[in-house]
Each structure stands twice: as structure tokens, then as C-alpha cells.
Amino acid sequence: MNAVQDDGDLMCCAVAGPPEMREALLGNTCARKPLEDLMQSAEAWGNLRFIRGLEDAAIPEGVHSFPAGIEPQPRDGECWQPDYALLAPMRDSAGELIGLLSVDDPSDGRIPAPWVRDVLDLFAEQAGFAILNARRHEEAAARMARLEQEHQRLREDIEERHRREQHLRHQARHDALTGLANPTELGERLVTLLADQIPLAVVFCDLDRFKEVNDTYGHSVGDLVLRLVAERLRAAVRGEDVVARVGGDEFVVVAAGIGYEEALALVDRIDQAFSHPVAAGDSRLLVRASLGLAYEPSRPENVLAPEERAQELLGSADREMYARKRSRASFTRLTARALARRASVAG
Question: Which of 57, 123, 179, 191 is deepest in the core (most CB within 10 A)?
Fold first, then answer.
């Protein structure tokens, strides 16, 4: 049995006969055109093609090989001769050749009877159906594999696009230097909490004399200090609390679902976070912060839209922070004057 390959040539893919014949014929190939020409010149027995009296060289290589040891028989019209061949072409519905059965050595040594030819013709037809079905199955499997690959690429594209969108969304709502929420994210989270009438505390933090850090040590050290401050703020609050950077050296913490006493304790924890020096390279800098607290109970007396109340709370915490900063600065100046006077008296 020979089957047409993708390149159009035929390859022997199955042999019924002695082992030496299978070894000699399996895998042999031949060109299709000479075979088609050979069948055109052969004797037609219905769909079968019978060849007699041809020399070996007239038959395309790989299609038909006369088994060794076959002796010529008396030519009585029924005996099979060594130079005989019976071909059963297999074609698709369009008449295109898809395979070929070749009978080289009938077991009874006789030319097949008409009923045997009919069986061979039917067998060739069924074998052709089997080849077509196998090819359709292979094509369907290949299409399914290509479709699955396309779906996989589509899923990967969607996942990649989703990751990019998440990354862009994160960038749009987070500070690039510290990774904290930016004013946009802070405003959205604060408005959502206020709309749900959840009690919350807003703590405004402003670093004291941070400009001196940049002027003295450079902006690279200043950026490192800001990142370390962000880490300390995150460590001082709960995981669900919002920590945002809203300015160069300004931070805001929003803690939801807490009472007023808990809000005061939160301010104390944040203040303690600034009580230890920050290691910035070879330097250890004591960076302090002024804090301002604004508290929103669960049932506020004033009736404002969440957006307006959010701005009011941030402004209130900011004003308290600046009041404390001024008070601390005044205390520092008074202390400095007192020490100066004491030194003058002592002198």
C-alpha cells in the first residue's frame, strides 16, 4: 500500500507478504506523475488497472517490486507472470489520487477472478475512506492545536494587558519614590470611607526642617530619608490603613473604624516612629515631624457631601499640624533665649 505524501510523492507504508519483501519495500517512494502515466496506459478493469508484459524499468521505482524466486508460468491466460501487476488506485471525491494498492504476487499464482477484483476494488475504496478520515482527523487535530495556541496567545495578551493596566493604575495612584498612595488614591479612599459613614482618623505629618537635609546631604540622601520615613509610617499603622505622600515632605495617614482614644494612640505611635535616628548612608539623622489630627465620628453632626467633608478633614488636620509646628518652633526659640540669658548672666 502506497500513500500520497504532502509533497505529492507516494510512499510504501504497508506490505502484506514475506518479511524480506516488507523490508525491501517499506518506506520506498516514487514520483506521482510517472505513476499516473503508467496507470493511463494500463488495462482498465473498472477502477483497477492491470499491467502485463512490461519490463521492470517501465514501472516507477518504489511502486512495484517483483519478489525474487517467482518462476515464469505457462501463458495460458490465467497464470500470474513475474511481469504482471494489478493496481487499485484510491481517490477522493474530486478524483484526486490519495493512495494506491499494488498486487504483485497472488497467493494462488492466478490472475484474480472477477469477484476477487470486486473485493479488491471495495477494499481500496474503504482504505481510501480510512485515509481521508485519518487526514481529516489530523487536520482537525492540527487546527485544534493551532486554535489552542491562538487562544493561549490571546490569554497571554489579555493577562499582559491586564498587568500593564494594573501597573499604570498603580502608577497613577501611588507615589513613585516611596510607593505610598498619592493624593488621588488618598482622596478616593477617604471619600469612600466617608460615604459609608465609617468613623476615621486623619493624621497629617510634616517633616521638620527637611529642607536642611537636602541642602546639607544632597537630594539622594533626602530621597532615602523619605523612603525610610514611609517604611516607618507603614510599620506604625495597620495593614488596612491608608498611608499617603501628599507633598515633598508631607504625609497623611487615614485609619478607619477606630474610636477617638484609638486615634490619639495612633498619633502617639506615629510620633514615636520619628523618635529614633534614620540611618542614611554614613549619617544618622534625627528626623522629627509635626502631627495634626482630625477625627470623624460615625454619625457626624454636619451634613456635607463626602468630597467636601474629605477636604474639610484634610484641611483641619493640616491646620492642627501647623499649629503644633508653630508652637514647637516658639518653644524652641524661647528655650534658646533662656539659655542665652543664662549664659550671659553666668559670664
Answer: 191
